[in-house]
Amino acid sequence: MADTEPESPGRRMSDFASSNNMSLTVMTFNLHRDRVTDGQNSWEHRKDLCASVINKFSPLIVCTQEGLKSQLDDINALLPGYEQFGVSRKGPDDPSDEHCAIFYSRDKVEKMDGGTFWLSESPSVPASTSWSAEVPAIATWVTFQLRGVQPPGFAFQIVNTHLDPKSSRARRRGALLIWQHIATLPPNLPVIFCGTFNTVKESGAGRFLLGRSREHGIAGDLRDAWGGSRRRRNGGIVYTQHGFRGEKQTAMDVLKLVFMALCMCFDRQNQDLHVDWVLFRSRSLAPVYSEVVSDRGNNRYPSDHYPLYVEFQLPRSVIRLEEELN
């Protein structure tokens, strides 16, 4: 079972990494769509804080959800060391809707290929919906190579999604469609699957992806980075969607959590009700540290979701190029 780290200001993920191994770091971060009605929680008041959180952890990869083009452009301007990839739910010709954009450190990883498909019966058709989905949902993927490592060419794929907020059937079928994409990839290619799943891991979509149940006769084969991490920070935060209230939940929120637990939605293995996950498929990656990021500034949270940060340990055979030269 993973150790849960106590609160320790200033402690960073690198404290837990082996000095003999390189790491691959990712963050999944639901930015919360910019809405004028959010008042003090509007994007104008949060954008610097969002950039500050990303800058503090400096992950190689940041998978964002809900971001509009203007928000993503702000992140790019505030964090010039990152590039972004992705299109809106309406497709490349209409950037006005939400994106599942993937940000990556241009100096540390190289984008090799990428694309987006829609979670519907017509996955190549922009804005298409199926299975009683409330809104279009997409999966954006990018294949990367690490820069400056020996041997060269260590590649991995990132998949980023935001599943439907209302229809459990749409979430299950969307999860199946994404898993079918992952299943077509070479077995030796590490895959990290991030996103806002709008459900918990004990749901139909979660149990399928984690191989605990079947969808259309198929069982997934992914693993949960949070549950599998050697060390975790903020393990007492059982939910990742907090509605800008943080841990100051209302009585109704508490009752909802109790109801979900009684309905066996509570993840018995990991004791969480997270809706923001980092899953992975790989024999060469090992999650060594995970953190539910609860940072805030000026009595304000960067989003209505907590970001989730994960550090994966790479194989010992992968070393920095300068170490090989020495």
UniProtKB/TrEMBL annotation:
Ranges for domain Endonuclease/exonuclease/phosphatase: 27-305
Matching SUPFAM superfamilies: DNase I-like (SSF56219)
PANTHER family in UniProt: CARBON CATABOLITE REPRESSOR PROTEIN 4, ENDONUCLEASE_EXONUCLEASE_PHOSPHATASE DOMAIN-CONTAINING PROTEIN
GO terms, molecular function: 3'-5'-RNA exonuclease activity
One Pfam family from the record: Exo_endo_phos
Name the UniProt record assigns to this protein: Endonuclease/exonuclease/phosphatase domain-containing protein
